[in-house]
């Protein structure tokens, strides 16, 4: 039978499909947090959304354990050890400098609002500096507002911080601790329970979520919330560029629609929900909470003002024109998104 006749038979039998329509791409995904942590659940839920939207043509295979320690995650994605992952910019601060904008004190009370604003500013002003070279950035986001948690005493004023030894996660939390004269112990959040149980630290600088996520509710007694947050932590959700190229163009467009601001809102809403759940647990367990008053906040602002000035100066040296204006634009975006934070989305 001639080739044309064979093709005609195949077409008439309905057996011929365009390559893009039949392509199956399985992305390997890694998480250094436990499977039940919000970050792992948010990543898995995003993968489910992609599989659903592409009718199964693009899916994820989530590895049972991380391929590398958390600080090496971006390199693992870049080098193709894994196709998809999230990680913290502050784990390699010399590599990621402009992204520290999203970690500054007093940005906002909602991870969703800050994350969505951050994503907008990142695409408008920061992406072109290529700090994520070798990576396809699906979205950037932050955790919820950082606060003071401790087992010794209420922290209602600046003087109450004196003598407290607090675990910090590095990055901006470490800088804030130094600015406030806190005796800081830089350690991963996964070690918080061990450090508190042994008395090696009195507490920690952390978002509310950490108390529930790491089972610390019976090791802490006091919480001080700072309006706007004492600091944030900046994350990126990234894909290996070669993995991205494996996805057919039509499905890339679908994944793009689930990326960017959608990713930022997705992870931010998960964090807001876990912060709320943790605050409810803290109340049930008798952790006494207070909100820093105006005088205390003014002291904190004075002490940490140099951190913001240092970022502006560094960003302008790096080539970001009118860095102060970009930061002001970021804050305006956060304010405009604040009322919408937490609406919609599928945190689960």
Which word captures the global form?
Answer: globular
Distance between the termini: 56 Å
Following the backbone from N to C, one meets helices and strands in this order, namely HHEHEHEHEEEHEHEHEEHHHEHH
Helix content: 40-55%
Largest sheet: 6 strands, mixed
Parts with pLDDT < 50 across at least 5 consecutive residues: 1-21, 342-348
Mean pLDDT: 91
Please count the beta strands (DSSP E, at least 2 residues each).
11
β content, as a range?
Answer: 15-25%
Write a structural description.
By secondary structure, the chain is of the alpha/beta class. The protein is built from 13 helices and 11 strands. The strands form 2 sheets. Strands 7-6-8-5-9-11 form a 6-stranded mixed sheet, sandwiched between helices. β1, α3 and β2 form a beta-alpha-beta unit. α3 runs antiparallel to α11 and α5 runs antiparallel to α13. The longest helix has 25 residues. The N terminus and C terminus are likely disordered.
Secondary structure blueprint with pairings:
Layout (H helix, E strand, L loop, with lengths): L2 H10 L6 H4 L2 E6 L7 H16 L4 E5 L10 H6 L5 E5 L22 H16 L9 E7 L4 E4 L14 E4 L3 H8 L3 E4 L5 H7 L4 E4 L2 H5 L8 E4 L8 E6 L1 H6 L2 H9 L3 H24 L3 E4 L2 H25 L4 H15 L11
Helix pairs in contact: 3-11, 5-11, 5-13
Keywords:
348 residues, alpha/beta, six-stranded mixed beta sheet, 15% strand, disordered C terminus
Question: What would a concise description of this structure say?
Answer:
By secondary structure, the protein is α/β, with parallel strands linked by helices. It has helices at 3-12, 19-22, 38-53, 73-78, 111-126, 172-179, 192-198, 209-213, 241-246, 249-257, 261-284, 294-318, 323-337; strands spanning 25-30, 58-62, 84-88, 136-142, 147-150, 165-168, 183-186, 203-206, 222-225, 234-239, 288-291.
